[in-house]
Amino acid sequence: MIEMENVVKNFKSRERNPGILSSVSSLFFPKYRIHKAVDEVSFQIGEGELVGYIGQNGAGKSTTIKLLTGILTPDSGKIFVGGLNPSRERKKNAYQIGAVFGQRTQLWWDLPVIESFLLIRSIYKISDSMYKENLEHFIEILDMKDILKTPARKLSLGQRMKADLAASLLHNPKVLFLDEPTIGLDILVKEKVREFIKFINQKNKVTILLTTHDVGDIEALASRILLLDSGRIQFDGEIDSFHSILGDGHNLNELEKKDLSMVIKALYRQKAKS
Ligand SMILES: Nc1ncnc2c1ncn2[C@@H]1O[C@H](COP(=O)(O)OP(=O)(O)OP(=O)(O)O)[C@@H](O)[C@H]1O
Ligand SMILES: [Mg+2]
After folding, report:
1. What is the pLDDT of residue 249?
2. Which atom of ligand 1 is nearest to the CA of 231?
3. Is 63 near ligand 1, meaning CB less than 6 Å away?
4. What digits encode the pLDDT tens for the residues 149-196?
5. Residue 63 Cα, ligand 1 centroid: separation in angstroms?
6. Which amino acid residue places its CA nearest to atom 29 of ligand 1?
7. What is the pLDDT of residue 151?
8. What's the 232 CA to ligand 2 centre distance in angstroms?
9. Long-range contact list for 128-136, CB < 8 A, 24+ apart?
10. What's 256's DSSP letter?
């Protein structure tokens, strides 16, 4: 369903040194620095899988998701989502995917939530029956009846995340990309969101790629994890191998388990040993 083969994405940024002289010189002789955000990444995700995409800040997770949604174009390598090339067939791809970026909303800022939903209905040409069925269903499981008339800008983070999740799924996408969908949520809302993600994956058979810094998300949801470090995949495996690292006797106490970066270090330690 999702396929990446030797994908590279570089960002070019202008090098600036402090001081007026170097500012002037960089105006005439700009120096560029190339940063490999995604470096020869390859993986395949089958239909109906729910994969956790983890890695430290700046590892390249969001860049990967932007490549898969077609927001960014790769410098080299092949990308297919449901058989489509996301950057070349961006519009067609949009009909088969949903995406939630936890750090920003896709809702219209000043419009009541329900108006955003109605706009999405017309943009994606969603049939009345499908719209009604999905909306009723999402309102019920996400417990969001009370927020439909509230403008997005007035929503709390948790309310906004629920609305964003519902918005991304109104058109019944086959694939869902979730970039930190539980960031900043309290434990109750987090659990509700996790339950919802699980439901969408298991009952609606939506293929999901989820990035998170929360070990709890991984534990509750993912059956497989991909670990990215400095743009490179360092681990691709079943959750069981992850569990064995989290388990007792692996020098990880309860406190450390909550911190994904500790878990990542433990994964490295295990890799170095084997
Ligand atoms: N538009 C851009 N222009 C230049 N550099 C960028 C751009 N977007 C991302 N980068 C750089 O690419 C690298 C990967 O960024 P990315 O956002 O993919 O990381 P991430 O794994 O999602 O991190 P986080 O966990 O903090 O969200 C970082 O070094 C970042 O500074
Ligand atoms: Mg990110």
Report:
1. 47
2. 14
3. yes
4. 999 999 999 999 999 999 999 999 999 999 999 988 889 999 999 999
5. 6
6. 58
7. 96
8. 15
9. 130/171, 130/172, 131/170, 134/166, 134/169, 134/170, 134/172, 135/166, 135/170
10. H
Cβ of 231 less than 6 Å from ligand 1: no
| C-alpha of residue 75 to centroid of ligand 2, in Å | 19
What is the predicted pLDDT for the residue at 98? Answer: 96
Q: Answer yes or no: CATH 3.40.50.1970 is held by domain 45-273.
A: no
Instruction: Tell me which of 7, 10, 11, 100 to substitute to probe ligand 1's pocket, judged by most ligand atoms within 8 Å of the beta carbon.
Output: 11
Report d(CA 172, CA 176) in Å as an integer: 10
Spans of the chain, pLDDT less than 50:
249
d(CA 139, CA 199): 14
pTM here is 0.89
Nearest alpha-carbon partner for 71 in 51, 39, 99: 99
Nearest CA owner, ligand 1 atom 16: 60
pLDDT digits (tens, 9 = 90+) for 214-233: 888 888 899 999 999 889 99
- The residues spanned by each domain of the chain are 45-273
Q: Is the separation of the CB atoms in 77 and 40 below 8 Å?
A: yes
pLDDT for 13 equals 81
Helix (H) / strand (E) containing 246:
helix 239-246
61 lines ligand 1 (CB under 6 A): yes
Ligand with smallest separation from the Cα of 227: 1
